[in-house]
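Changelog note: in this version the structure field was regenerated for every chain. One regenerated record is shown below for reference.
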Amino acid sequence: NIHKLFKEGRFILVNKELLKEIMFIIRCSAFIDVAGIIIASFYINVSDAVFGFLLGTILLAADLFFIALSVQDAARGALAGSKNGSKKAVFYYILRFLFLGVFLVLALKIKSISFPCTIIPLFYPKLIYPVKAVIFSKKEG
C-alpha cells in the first residue's frame, strides 16, 4: 500500500531536518529576491529581473536538494558498510553541476531572463548562514 509506505517514511527522499533547512533557505531567499528585484528594477526590465531571480531561486532549491540527497546517500552507504561512498559523492557532484550548467546556459540564451539575477540567488547561503549564526548565537548567549 503506497499510503502506508509514505506514512512509514520509506518514500521520503530527504530526511525531515534537511528539508526543514532547505525550506528555511528558500523562505529567506524569497525576501532577498524581493530586495534584489527592487534594486535591479532601476537598471533592467522588472520582468527580466523577476524571471532571473525566480529561476535562480529554483536552481538554488534544486542544488540544495541534490546536496541533501548526496549527503544522505553517502551516510546510508556508510552505515550499510558500502565502500563506494566517494564514487557516489563524485557522481552527485557531477550531476549537480551538469544540472546547474544546463539551466545557466538556458538563462544566458533566453533574452527575457536576466543572467546576473539568475546567478545571485546561488550565493544566498553564503549570506544567510552567517546571519543565522549571529542571530541565534545572540539568543542563546
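Spot check on this record: The helical segments are 2-8, 16-40, 46-79, 85-109, 115-119, 124-140. The CA atoms of residues 75 and 81 lie 10 Å apart.
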